[in-house]
Amino acid sequence: MSPQDWKEARRLRAWELYKQSWKQALIAQALGVTPGAVSQWIAIAKKSGPEALHRRLASGRPPRLKPEELAQLPALLQQGAPAHGFRGEVWTCARVAVIIERRFQVKYHPAHVSRLLKRIGWTPQKPIRRARQRDEAAIAHWRDERWEELQKKPQPKAAPSSL
């Protein structure tokens, strides 16, 4: 198995040099590391074999929402927000978090829900904030009548006199 990165290659090289009867201090000096690091690498290789010196990916915390549950989420969202008791068709991160908690008993912060949505190819939406008492007819009238008056430019003044 070939090394994945330079750090792994350095650990494996230290083990090779140790097998060739090099002293740990000389190995550390040759590889530019501390003697303590070489000592740890050799102890690991002696205990678990040289394979233990290979690079391992950090596993991290397992996801709380299982992959098969995450796969069900698009179908739930496809039903629409009103089908789940929400007013309007907008899927916000907070609403999706509520759906996930109701359906799968997994609680996520809305900020993390946006990452989940991105993973399944959805984008969170932001509702347009408008006043409830908004009068579209009055707005259109103002835009057509009053706005034009405000935009009118003053007439150019007459040429200056030659006094």
Characterization of this structure:
Helices cover 53% and strands 0% of the residues. It is built from seven helices and no strands. Helix 1 packs antiparallel against helix 2. Among the domains are: 48 residues; 53 residues, no CATH class. The longest helix has 16 residues. The radius of gyration is 34 Å and the shape is elongated. With 163 residues, the protein is mainly α. The mean pLDDT is 88.
Radius of gyration from the CA trace? Answer: 34 Å
- Number of DSSP helical runs: 7
Shape: elongated
- Strand residue content: under 5%
Question: Overall mean pLDDT score?
Answer: 88
- Class by SSE composition: mainly alpha
**Terminal CA distance:** 99 Å
**Biggest sheet details:** none
Q: Provide the helix percentage.
A: 40-55%
